[in-house]
Design brief:
alpha/beta
């Protein structure tokens, strides 16, 4: 089984990396292959709603987003990790996720999602809620932990001292591993949940 971890921090080896590395080690212990891709230091522009992906099956901007797409499709779970800027996620990560989720047309149902946030002090829960919305619009179950998925630290390396936060990451990875394995077994025995054709209701009538 595979997990794709998207690190939204621009700082290589910073506190956000400490959080995802703790998860990656636990995934390995659980027999799950984890791949970390750092996008916060990439040049990623936002979606322009051109609709090109509807025809081409990929984003018109050929950057790391299109590189992530097949990794996301192959993965059984997705972790998105962001530092907190002004009580919200890093804008580069949001641009990446907007385009990644919108331009990929494969079925994301029952892929397990988890969001992780790293902050100095405040804004963690707001950013946590912001990131979880990507999963809830795609039939993706969300993995939880013993606390909200946050780690604290400002200067590089300070997250190592947040023992509760790092424990939360380990518990999250174990819970996520259990969910992915359980869903795989459920698919074998019961199949996927019944699907319906999506009904699009607009708020302005013709």
């Amino acid at each position: 089984m595979k997990v794709l971890i998207i690190n939204g921090s621009p700082r290589v080896g910073g506190n956000t990396s400490i959080a995802v590395d703790e998860m990656a080690k636990t995934f390995t212990e659980e027999g799950i292959e984890a791949e970390i891709v750092q996008v916060g230091n990439k040049d990623i522009r936002g979606c322009i709603a051109c609709g090109s992906c509807m025809e081409k099956g990929k984003c018109v901007f050929d950057d790391v987003v299109n590189e992530l797409a097949p990794k996301f499709e192959e993965a059984d779970g997705l972790v998105v990790d962001s530092p907190v800027y002004y009580a919200s996620a890093n804008a580069t990560l949001i641009a990446c996720l907007d385009r990644l989720f919108y331009s990929t047309h494969f079925d994301k149902s029952m892929k397990v999602g988890a969001s992780v946030v790293v902050c100095r002090r405040g804004g963690a829960s707001a950013t946590f809620d912001e990131l979880n919305k990507y999963f809830t619009i795609c039939n993706m179950p969300i993995a939880s932990s013993q606390y909200w998925n946050s780690v604290h630290g400002r200067e590089k390396g300070q997250a190592e001292k947040d023992l509760e936060g790092l424990q939360t990451m380990r518990v999250l990875a174990r819970n996520m591993s259990f969910l992915m394995k359980s869903i795989a077994l459920g698919k074998e025995k019961y199949g996927m949940p019944k699907s319906e054709e999506h009904l699009w209701t607009h708020f302005i009538s013709e």
